[in-house]
Write a structure and sequence with these properties.
The complex is a heterodimer.
Chain A (H helix, E strand, L loop, with lengths): L2 E9 L2 E9 L23 H5 L15 E7 L5 E7 L1 H5 L3 E6 L7 E2 L3 E2 L4 E2 L5 E7 L2 H10 L1 E6 L6 H5 L12 E10 L2 H7 L2 E9 L11 E7 L2 E6 L4 H12 L6 E4 L15 H13 L3 E4 L2 H7 L6 E9 L5 E13 L12 H5 L6 E9 L13 H19 L3 H7 L4 E2 L4 E2 L5 H13 L13 E12 L9 E6 L5 E4 L9 H13 L6 E4 L17 H28 L6 E4 L2 E4 L7 E2 H8 L4 E6 L11 E12 L5 E11 L6 H20 L5 E2 L4 E2 L18 E5 L23 H13 L10 H18 L1
Parallel strand pairs in A: 3-16, 14-15, 18-19, 24-25, 31-34
Antiparallel strand pairs in A: 1-2, 3-9, 4-8, 4-10, 5-9, 6-7, 11-19, 12-17, 13-14, 13-16, 17-18, 20-21, 22-30, 23-24, 23-29, 26-27, 27-28, 30-31, 32-33
Chain B lengths: L5 E3 L4 H8 L7 E4 L5 H6 L7 E4 L10 E4 L2 E5 L4 H6 L1 H6 L1 H8 L4 H6 L2 H6 L47 H8 L3 E6 L2 E6 H4 L18 E8 L5 E8 L10 E10 L2 E10 L6 E2 L1 H7 L6 H12 L11 H20 L1
Helix pairs in contact in B: 5-8, 10-11, 11-12
Classes of the chains: A alpha+beta, B alpha+beta.
């Protein structure tokens, strides 16, 4: 019997129990002779995807299916005075209309409703229509008569905090309690400091812009609901939708086979899941509700904008004596519960420092609600902290990497626990610098107005260690193939393949013999949401445990067949081998065929993370840029990045995550910015034309230097997550390189053309004044 | 989402023009590449009741033809064709360069030069479905006091939007003419007159009649010693409208400038000729200090809004670079 770890948790007035089963597995040490883990086989779903057969949320077509569209507020803050849907309901082809007038009383966000009568951002849901085509649904929206009374609004953090600012909620514009953290004595640390850097930074609201928008298809069979949803967490959607609709969770089935990206915005269930379910129940037909790009960018999450005031103190030798950060961030009009944006954490944890104080305040604004976005909080913090560290290194006359190495920590200073892989970040520093040629960098001579420079940034990330519990089942078929089932999801990262490699490795089967099933709450055991870079690190060990259980049974059967001791047997490449007797091998399928129609089955659980150590992931990036001093054009020439991701199960998948993350980080650093007109309270670029994401021409060669040291104190396969980390240091590394090239430091993200040109022109004007 | 409309594919240009000039039948629009019109319709900025397909009219073509007095470009010629034309690359490099940096390859394969000149501004207030901007018939311009970092430095009253076309900037510098055909008439207008600042009565950037079609663009023959170039600053490396675009065309006689055109894009509702800078160069020897003076002169009189002052040094820098490039290209 596995050991059960039962933890009682008390939050507000609610008691919950966290239950994690412990299953002991022997480690796969760094020098383990692994046959499949560590290789880069093609993605299992690759053929399905390139032939267009892979089914995404919007590909679902059910008999009689309807299409839904949502009417949204065009004002940033308004009271719904009246609503008349009669003409929309009467339009031929319209089968259901839902609004505050007829929707069930369903709570949403903190103290609000599914359809609010106080609308707090442009894009908030007013009504929804299901019709036989999207066009008719859209026509019906135009027939809904809405009278809104405009209310005063505020869309900027500073303005929202002023006295007399328009209030979003009864309690004011501060969302929740400000988070204060202190260790040591900050004042004493600053007094001890011989050099101090103090600076303010701002980071922008960024939009996820996953290829595939949010959306789902809902279908009822009696009182059972099936949702095909574009989500990072099928069990999270199941729980949230069941709760909103007052159903037992097992009456809701959530399916998601393939996904065109989520980046955090799909880690919660948004209103469209429940709206589609209600419309479907009303119309007695399946209903598909996909958001269009504009709705996606208004009402389905964003990376919170921040204001950060940073103070660093150090002794002459570079030893940090004080770190302080005052952080204001906007959660938008509502707290979704999925923001997960702990901007303070990097200040508290990345560098060894006895005296730290962080203060973090979330602010409501009349803009769309914020939600986690690939390393939430850390990407924002890195932009400020890593530029401040660069500034400090320059003040000290010290190499910026040397400064970081001087302040190295091998523990989680908040939890006061050692790290599971204390050398992780150090290896990232060393590998990135070495491959980049950091120490010996020779700056090329200026080319006209063009100047070159290099920049460095590091990061920690408080996730990547996996989120137990998580489970898997394995059935070894009579033909020697294995069916691996888990309730996890592959959100486009290639989790299917990485997890199947773990199963194949432990079972001793070729990868082709593994069928990995996921993405269906009715077909697999619980697995956590694919967020926090958790999937491989959570489900890899669970699948391995299930495989070990099946393998043990297989070897018992084989031992009987082969008239030997099971302890002498092993499996490799689909064949049972006898230790010391290579002539006596037996294909697995000959063993499994002998017990048919019975099959061998195993169940595996992900054990708990260590309680005496802290798991983190780390990375370091070196960037070279060229800046045209006259036109402000920034060209990123190359990026070298190293990451402590533990054991690399599939280098191609890990490289893909790194390249994608760095690309998104480059967009965050150089061009991506949601623009809101503060006078109108409207988003001006909720589209892919004016909201600029990087193109292939913007992306330089990205070199991922593999660290790949298995973190066996974290879990017995030694793998950690890589989904989020690569994005974190890119923007500050670019900003530091721009400073190195030009002498101009940009404190406001992104480093877009208008900021660069203005700053460079200011620098020239100052130089003229001085001379 | 786009509203329903009727669609007609006429056989002849006369039929097309007759359809366009029928005042009884609601708002009608010619459709060629559709790369701008369809985006306007999807955002419901315009909702024509009738589209007239002009892509297959025998009188309109996609040919680039040379004659003694210059080069004619048929109205249906795509940006890709212009970008790839050896004739345009050789004689009118500013135009080939402008075509090459416009939009994306997919868009350039669809977009025609006629439609390119008629495209509407990308101003995010104009394009926003919920903003009642002046150019769309509203009372006032929200961009003037709002997020105007991408907006105009010149001619910005009453509309502060900038003209989005890269090719238009180059064509004004190259003194192109636009050949138009209307209901019973033909006319040819210098491109500088084809564009005109919007007025309360005509809230568009062009003087084309609602019943007229562009038939061709004509580029005058060039003297020896002519060279031209187009430079563009964008918010990313490709596939973005110009933050600032600069087209320069020079006729050099020995070391002296016989004639100079300097035209700025992205700074005015229509392509902006920097006449003072052109005059400064004419007859003079093109030294580095004169280049710097010309760049300053090109932006003299600019009236930046609250957030677009950076466009002044940016445009000056591009003018300097473009003048140097044009001189080098000729050598």
């Amino acid at each position: 019997m596995p050991i059960l770890h039962i933890t009682k948790k008390q939050e507000d007035e609610e008691t919950t129990i966290e239950l994690v089963e412990e299953e002991r597995l022997p480690d796969w040490p760094a020098d383990a002779d692994l046959a499949i883990v560590g290789l880069a086989p093609a993605r299992l779903e690759g053929h399905e995807k390139v032939t267009g057969r892979a089914q995404y949320a919007s590909d679902v077509r059910l008999p009689g299916q309807l299409y839904a569209r949502v009417l949204r507020s065009h004002l940033p803050h308004a009271r719904l005075v009246s609503l008349d849907t009669a003409a929309a309901e009467a339009l031929p082809g319209v089968l259901a209309v839902l609004s505050s007038a007829n929707a069930p009383d369903i709570d949403w966000y903190e103290e609000d409703k599914l359809f609010e009568t106080t609308l707090r951002f442009a894009g908030e849901e007013i009504a929804a229509v299901a019709a036989i085509s999207e066009e008719i649904a859209e026509d019906a929206l135009r027939l809904i008569k809405v009278e809104l009374e405009s209310l005063p609004f505020v869309t900027e953090i500073e303005a929202a905090l002023r006295s007399g600012a328009p209030k979003l909620h009864e309690g004011g514009n501060i969302a929740g309690e400000p988070k204060l953290y202190e260790r040591g004595d900050l004042a004493a640390g600053l007094k001890e400091a011989e050099v101090v850097v103090e600076a303010s930074f701002t980071t922008q609201a960024a939009l996820h812009n996953a290829f595939e928008s949010h959306g789902c298809t809902a279908s009822w069979s009696g009182d059972e609901l099936t949702l095909w949803a574009s989500t990072q967490g099928i069990f999270a959607v199941r729980q949230q939708v069941a709760e909103k609709l007052g159903l037992p969770e097992h009456r809701v089935r959530v399916i998601k086979q393939h996904m065109g990206g989520g980046f955090g915005a799909k880690q919660i269930s948004w209103k469209q899941d429940v709206i589609a379910a209600l419309l479907s129940r009303q119309a007695r037909r399946p209903v598909q509700l996909m958001l269009d790009r504009e709705a996606e960018n208004l009402a389905a999450g964003n990376r919170n904008p921040t204001r950060q005031h940073v103070t660093l103190g150090a002794r002459r030798d570079g030893t940090l004596t004080a770190i302080a950060a005052q952080i204001k961030q906007s959660t938008g009009a509502y707290r979704t519960g999925g923001e997960a944006s702990d901007v303070s954490a990097m200040y508290q944890g990345l560098y060894r420092c006895p005296n730290v104080r962080t203060e973090q305040t979330a602010v409501y604004l009349n803009t769309g609600p914020a939600v986690a976005f690939r390393a939430p909080g850390h990407a924002e913090a890195a932009f400020a902290l890593e530029q401040a560290m660069d500034e400090l290194a320059r003040k000290l006359g010290m190499d910026p990497v040397e400064l970081r190495q001087r302040n190295y920590t091998e523990e989680d200073q908040v939890e006061e626990k050692p790290l599971t892989l204390p050398e992780g970040l150090r290896l990232c520093y060393e590998r990135a610098m070495e491959t980049f040629g950091w120490s010996g960098y020779q700056r090329p001579a200026p080319d006209g107005a063009k100047r070159r420079g290099i920049g460095f940034a590091a990061h920690d990330w408080s996730a990547g260690g996996g989120h137990p519990p998580g489970y898997a089942w394995i059935e070894l078929n009579e033909d020697g193939t294995a069916e691996v089932v888990t309730g996890a999801q592959d959100i486009g990262t290639g989790s299917r393949t990485g997890l199947a490699q773990v199963a194949a490795e432990e079972l001793g089967l070729p990868l082709a013999a593994i069928s990995l099933q996921l993405g269906d709450t009715a077909r697999g055991p619980y697995a956590p949401t694919s967020a926090g870079s958790a999937t491989q690190a959570t489900l890899g060990p669970a699948i391995r445990a299930a495989a070990a259980e099946v393998k043990a049974q297989l070897l018992e059967v084989a031992a009987t067949l082969m008239e030997t001791d099971a302890a002498r047997l092993s499996v490799r490449d689909g064949t049972v081998l006898v230790d010391g007797d290579p002539a006596r091998s037996l294909p697995v399928r000959e063993v499994t065929a002998k017990i048919g129609p019975h099959t061998l089955q195993g169940r595996g659980a992900r054990g708990p993370n260590p309680s005496d150590k802290a798991i983190k992931t780390f990375g370091a990036q070196c960037v070279e840029v060229e800046v045209d001093l006259e036109t402000g054009e920034v060209t990123v020439l190359r990026i070298v990045t190293a990451h402590d991701v533990g054991r690399i199960v599939n280098p191609a998948l890990v490289d893909s995550q790194v390249i994608g993350g760095v690309t998104q980080g480059l967009g965050y650093g150089l061009m991506e910015e949601r623009v809101v007109d503060a006078n109108l309270g409207l988003v001006l670029n909720a589209n892919l034309e004016e909201y600029k994401v990087p193109t292939v021409a913007d992306i330089p060669p990205i070199t991922h230097v593999h660290v790949g040291v298995p973190d066996l104190a974290a879990n017995p396969i030694g793998a950690k997550g890589i989904g989020e980390p690569p994005l974190i240091p890119t923007a500050p590394a670019i900003a530091n390189a721009v400073f190195d090239a030009t002498g101009v430091r940009i404190h406001d993200a992104p480093l877009s053309r208008h900021r660069l040109v203005a700053a460079l022109a200011g620098q020239r004007a100052n130089a003229r004044q001085r001379s | 989402m786009m509203r329903p409309f009727d669609f007609t594919r006429p056989e002849t240009i006369e039929q097309a023009i007759a359809l366009l000039s029928d005042p009884a039948a609601g708002e009608r629009r010619p459709l060629a590449g559709g790369t701008d019109l369809l985006t306007l319709m999807k955002a419901e900025i315009v909702s024509p009741s009738h589209l007239i397909d002009i892509k297959r009219l025998p009188e309109l073509d996609d040919q680039i033809t040379e004659s003694a007095n210059g080069v004619a470009i048929g109205a249906l010629t795509t940006l890709s064709q212009i970008e790839a034309s050896p004739l345009i690359q050789d004689r009118y490099p500013a135009l080939a360069e402008a075509a090459a940096v416009a939009a994306s390859p997919q868009l350039r394969n669809m977009a025609t030069i006629g439609g390119n000149l008629l495209q509407r501004p990308r101003c995010w207030y104009y394009r926003h479905p919920d903003i009642d901007c002046w150019l769309k018939g509203g009372e006032s311009c929200a961009a003037r006091t709002g997020e105007n970092q991408l907006h105009a430095l010149f001619g910005a009253d009453p509309c502060v939007a900038v003209h989005p076309s890269d090719l238009a900037t180059a064509l004004v510098a190259l003194h192109a003419e636009v050949r138009l055909r209307g209901n019973g008439h033909h006319r040819t207008v210098p491109i500088a007159e084809f564009f005109a600042l919007p007025t309360p009565e005509r809230r568009t950037e062009t003087t084309i009649g609602s019943d007229e079609l562009i038939v061709a663009i004509h580029l005058p023959a060039l003297p020896a010693g002519a060279s031209s170039t187009y430079l563009k600053a964008m918010d990313r490396k490709v596939w973005a409208f110009a933050v600032v675009g600069v087209a320069v065309a020079l006729h050099l006689e020995g070391p002296r400038v016989a004639e100079a055109s300097i035209v700025l894009g992205g700074v005015s509702p229509i392509p902006h000729r920097a006449i003072a800078a052109e005059q400064l160069l004419t007859g003079a020897e093109l030294t580095e200090s004169l280049i710097a003076q010309a760049a300053t002169a090109a932006l003299a009189g600019a009236t930046p809004l609250s957030q677009n002052g950076y466009k002044v040094p940016l445009a000056e820098a591009l003018v300097r670079q473009a003048l140097r490039t044009a001189v080098e290209a000729r050598r």
